[in-house]
């Protein structure tokens, strides 16, 4: 029979050998001190270059395999069920949210040392209680979802990646609209994004990626929130009309997802963030270019 001190040594050795999001060095870093690669409109994937509304070339499982740890998606009701769609389901229908969640759950079950973040948009203000939560519960994702100890978490309040993983609660879920009025925040895992995460301008068309605080809700100042940079370049086919008509810029994606472009964008936002790196780098065509290498660099690792 193994003695107590031997068991303690075994646990300590296992912790020393643990990888968190692929890196032992990340295990004891707080979530708010890590940069994660994000896939913008992760559901809108197609290998067809004529699918102008696509934002990704490879499917969700492959995005995760390539290193994306933030999955972003926009939701719409379609035929009485919640779908992920790009602007409208007539433009690009990514299918049922339930199917999407099952796909990610399968991947997470196979990769137990990975911390994943969802940022979902809810333009129709679909009910969290009646629609969103039942889907998370039905697919088993609720069992993985983290519930913060306070209604609003500052950047420094979050657990380490090791703590997420060992607790089994390694999915962080943000919703841009509809999660504000939580009756029992101590029980809620669908979190109000803009109380804890700010974004710079979305749908950018300027390849120099100037930075400013574009969307936030407070009560925390931006320096105390997590932050997301929208590093997904678009081209406007009707630039002389406003608001124009924008499509993801696949042609320039190797440069957009390059080391220099991502690092420059991070520097542009650093002044707002007290010289801290962004938490989330949201990209189109995440399989193209050097996006994961750039994120590794921002985390202090050799690209």
TrEMBL record:
BP term (GO), one: lipid metabolic process
InterPro entries per the UniProt record, alphabetical: PI-PLC_domain, PLC-like_Pdiesterase_TIM-brl
Molecular function GO terms recorded: phosphoric diester hydrolase activity
Gene3D superfamilies the record matches: Phosphatidylinositol (PI) phosphodiesterase (3.20.20.190)
Name listed for the protein in its UniProt record: PLC-like phosphodiesterase
Species annotation: Ephemerocybe angulata
């Amino acid at each position: 029979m193994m003695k107590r001190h031997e068991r303690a040594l075994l646990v300590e050795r296992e912790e020393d050998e643990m990888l968190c999001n692929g890196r032992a060095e990340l295990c004891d870093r707080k979530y708010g001190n890590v940069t994660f690669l994000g896939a913008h409109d992760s559901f809108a994937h197609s290998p067809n270059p004529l699918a102008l509304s696509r934002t990704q070339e490879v499917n969700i499982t492959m995005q995760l395999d390539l290193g994306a740890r933030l999955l972003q998606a926009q939701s719409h009701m379609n035929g009485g069920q919640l779908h992920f769609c790009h602007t409208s389901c007539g433009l690009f229908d990514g299918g049922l949210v339930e199917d999407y969640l099952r796909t990610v759950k399968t991947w997470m079950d196979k990769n137990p040392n990975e911390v994943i973040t969802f940022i979902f948009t809810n333009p129709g203000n679909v009910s969290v209680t009646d629609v969103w939560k039942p889907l998370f519960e039905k697919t088993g994702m609720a069992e993985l979802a983290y519930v913060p100890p306070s209604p609003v978490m500052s950047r420094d309040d979050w657990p380490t990646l090791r703590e997420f993983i060992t607790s089994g609660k390694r999915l962080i879920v943000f919703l841009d609209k509809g999660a504000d009025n939580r009756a029992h925040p101590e029980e809620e895992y669908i979190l109000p994004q803009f109380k804890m995460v700010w974004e710079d301008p979305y749908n950018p068309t300027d390849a120099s990626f100037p930075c400013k605080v574009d969307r936030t809700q407070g009560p925390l100042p931006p320096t105390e929130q997590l932050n997301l940079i929208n590093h997904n370049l678009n081209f406007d086919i009707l630039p002389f009309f406003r608001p124009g008509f924008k499509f993801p810029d696949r042609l320039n994606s190797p440069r957009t997802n390059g080391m220099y472009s991502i690092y420059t964008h991070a520097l542009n936002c650093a002044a707002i963030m007290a010289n801290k790196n962004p938490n989330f780098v949201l990209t189109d065509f995440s399989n193209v270019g050097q996006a994961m290498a750039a994120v590794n660099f921002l985390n202090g690792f050799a690209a």
